[in-house]
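Key result, reporting period 2: structure in, sequence out.
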């Protein structure tokens, strides 16, 4: 099992089939919280659905197009973070993430994003990391803002979710800018 410690009791675990049951239970317990934000909530109705998702993430990894991890705080999985894909031509990736409601407010996702960004720039040699957030998703927007991203624009009505079209704010961070964020931390 590949895992990375963010802190002694907080780690990222590369998604594997053994996570499916536990992730399904977290999603199932957080439907009301996740439904307005994540488009896949309604189609996640069984452990088999999560197994199918995990299989796609393993194909993504095998195709050298990024990876996805469970976030474990203590004994419990509390969320997932990953790269949507890697655009190797332009040395660019984008991040997606979610947390269980009760795991919010502790900086867990900001730390997880920081680890992905460092890995992207330092280990993978990427040039750019992007995060897109619904305009109204203030908690999500606060994460790239905390990490020194720049607002690059708004994509209008970009995502159909929970019966509405949501506009996305595009946040971008370049490798040279990340060095500045780190030196100010
Ligand atoms: C988006 C989401 C991950 C944000 O969760 P979050 O807990 O606000 O984010 P973090 O884990 O980075 O925690 C930040 C909070 O912890 C606090 N915090 C405590 N210690 C901290 C630390 N060391 N570093 C940063 N923040 C810290 C911050 O002040 C902030 O609290 P506040 O919102 O009261 O100001 C979560 O709301 C979620 O999963 N929502 C549903 C799915 C979703 O929207 N996904 C994103 C789609 S783009």
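The corresponding designed sequence is given below.
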């Amino acid at each position: 099992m590949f895992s990375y410690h963010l802190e002694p009791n907080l780690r990222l675990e590369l998604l594997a089939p053994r996570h499916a049951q536990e992730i399904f239970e977290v999603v199932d317990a957080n439907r009301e919280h996740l439904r307005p934000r994540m488009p896949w909530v309604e189609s996640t109705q069984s452990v088999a659905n999560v197994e199918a998702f995990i299989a796609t993430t393993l194909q993504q990894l095998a195709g050298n197009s990024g990876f996805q991890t469970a976030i474990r705080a203590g004994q419990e999985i509390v969320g997932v973070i990953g790269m949507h894909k890697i655009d190797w031509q332009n040395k660019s990736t984008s991040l997606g993430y979610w947390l269980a409601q009760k795991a919010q407010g502790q900086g867990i996702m900001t730390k997880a994003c920081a680890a992905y960004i460092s890995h992207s720039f330092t280990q993978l040699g990427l040039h750019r990391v992007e995060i897109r957030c619904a305009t109204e998703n203030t908690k999500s927007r606060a994460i790239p803002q905390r990490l020194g991203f720049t607002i690059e624009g708004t994509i209008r009505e970009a995502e159909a979710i929970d019966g509405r079209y949501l506009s996305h704010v595009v946040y971008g961070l370049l490798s040279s800018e990340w060095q500045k964020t780190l030196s100010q931390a």
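The pocket of coenzyme A is lined by residues 34, 37-38, 97-99, 104-110, 133, 137, 139-140, 143 (CB under 6 Å). Residues 147 and 182 are 9 Å apart (CA to CA). This case is discussed further under Risks and Mitigation.
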